[in-house]
Amino acid sequence: MTARNTFTQATIQRAIRAAEACGKVAVLTPAGIVFAGPEHAVLPSPDIAASEVAECDKAFGV
User: Which stretch of DSSP H or E encloses residue 5?
Assistant: First the structure.
């Protein structure tokens, strides 16, 4: 098992600029930085119907 990678702010900014220059997005993972197409890096948004929301989420907000 490899050690977790640490990123400086400058490294993150360079990765984002480089990814944007080639039409990709920078995805930071514990193993390193990956350039992926925007269609592959979409974060799922929860589709929560009112009946599916847990009681504590109703009390404290989702």
Answer: none
Q: What is the dihedral of CA 48, 52, 55, 56, to 10 degrees?
A: -30
Centre a 10 Å sphere on the Cβ of residue 19 and count the other Cβ atoms it contains. 19
Place of tokens 């490294």: 11
24 in Cβ contact with 35 (< 8 Å): yes
> Rg for the chain (alpha carbons), in Å?
17
DSSP string covering 6-18: ---HHHHHHHHHH
The one-letter amino acid code at 46 reads: P
Whole-structure pTM value: 0.58
- Give per-residue pLDDT as tens, 15-56: 999 999 999 999 888 888 999 998 887 766 666 565 566 666
